[in-house]
Amino acid sequence: MTSGPRARSRLDAVLEHPGQTLIGIDFDGTLAPIVPDPDHAHAEPRAVAALARLGPLLGTVAVVTGRPAQTAVRLGGFRGVAGLEHLVVLGQYGVERWDAATDEFVIPPEPDQVADLEAEIPPLLDRLGQGAARVEHKGRAVVVHTRQLPDPDASFDTLSGPLTALAERHAMVVEPGKNVLEIRSPGIDKGVALRAIVAERGARQVVFVGDDLGDLPAFRVVDQLRTEGLGGLLVCSASHEEDALSGLADVVVQGPDGVATWLEELADELEARAARAS
Length: 278
Ligand SMILES: [Mg+2]
What we know:
- The protein is an alpha/beta fold and 278 residues long.
- It has 2 domains: 5-107 and 188-277, HAD superfamily/HAD-like (Rossmann fold, 3-Layer(aba) Sandwich); 112-184, 2-Layer Sandwich (Alpha-Beta Plaits).
- The chain contains 8 helices and 12 strands.
- The chain has helices at 5-16, 45-54, 69-76, 112-127, 152-169, 190-201, 216-227, 255-277; strands spanning 21-25, 60-64, 88-91, 96-99, 104-106, 134-137, 141-145, 173-176, 180-184, 205-210, 231-238, 251-254.
- α2 runs parallel beside α8 (255-277), α4 packs across α5 (152-169) and α6 (190-201) packs across α7 (216-227).
- The chain starts with a helix and ends with a helix.
- Magnesium ion binds next to loops.
- It comes from Microlunatus sagamiharensis.
- One of its GO terms (molecular function) is metal ion binding.
- It is an enzyme of class 3 (hydrolase).
- Its EC number is 3.1.3.12.
- This is Trehalose 6-phosphate phosphatase.
């Protein structure tokens, strides 16, 4: 389940102190297969079942996503799952939060600048001949999808510069992903979110599983936390589209299916150790 001696020793630290370990995991492309219509995404059932086995063994399980927290909870089917009673979902890169323990959402109001910027997007797409691109309103962010267009990569390249300029005029930033350009407020990313929950939970080991450029700040934070004395293990859910994370990862698996298998193997190993210790 690991890819070399360094990864093995990092995994061993997690296995030896599971109660002090936090596992952070992305949603789309990691827990949930990428589908043409993001509203029809769903978490891979094997992965959710494995997380439910890990929930009682690990210190914290946190889903860290760019999606709104309510959407992630719904599409993930996380509510009421035995074993996930203490799951935390950090939505909108940590701006929003859901705690399974209380079934409460914390959702700050949306900033006005998002709506102002969003109003300018359809005419801009039309001017660039990309009017068929899908625009997704995510509350604190606006996402332009090129996946369903005839040439997704060419459309992505056409839109990248003009959308960046538009974002800058509204004091926002563009985060590129897989055939998506996400525009959101600066200073909000998964790295900030992950660091905050690690501190809140007093975790001594951090596992982060991600697949996309949006996960890069979380990967970098795990790297920083290692220099601060914490254990860290990085797992990349690789796809044919995005290899930016795989160079940083300790473990590379193939997509949500591979993630589910890796989580199952982690649960197997932790349960075997717990059985031996009792
Ligand atoms: Mg993802």
